[in-house]
Design goal:
49% of the residues lie in helices and 8% in strands. α2 packs across α3 and α2 packs across α4.
């Protein structure tokens, strides 16, 4: 869902998070519930999204995209 908001491919998310694309594929295949995923990997993915303005609603699966000020029309 968050990746779709940014129109990122799996490769783009992997590059921005600094993780392997196969890791992203495995995580997405199981809807983010991958017990063997390293906490550091999940944090890296989270940072990649938050740097772009994607925020998650606590306690839900919902996300919101808040574009940087430079992208907001006046």
């Amino acid at each position: 869902m968050a990746r779709g908001l940014l129109n990122w491919s799996i490769m783009e998310l992997a590059r921005n998070a600094g993780v392997g694309h196969s890791t992203i594929k495995r995580i997405e295949k199981v809807n983010g519930v991958l017990p063997e995923a390293q906490v550091s990997t999940l944090k890296a993915i989270h940072r990649a999204f938050t740097r772009t303005g994607v925020v998650r609603f606590e306690g839900t699966t919902g996300v919101l995209y808040i574009p940087p000020r430079s992208e907001v029309p006046e």
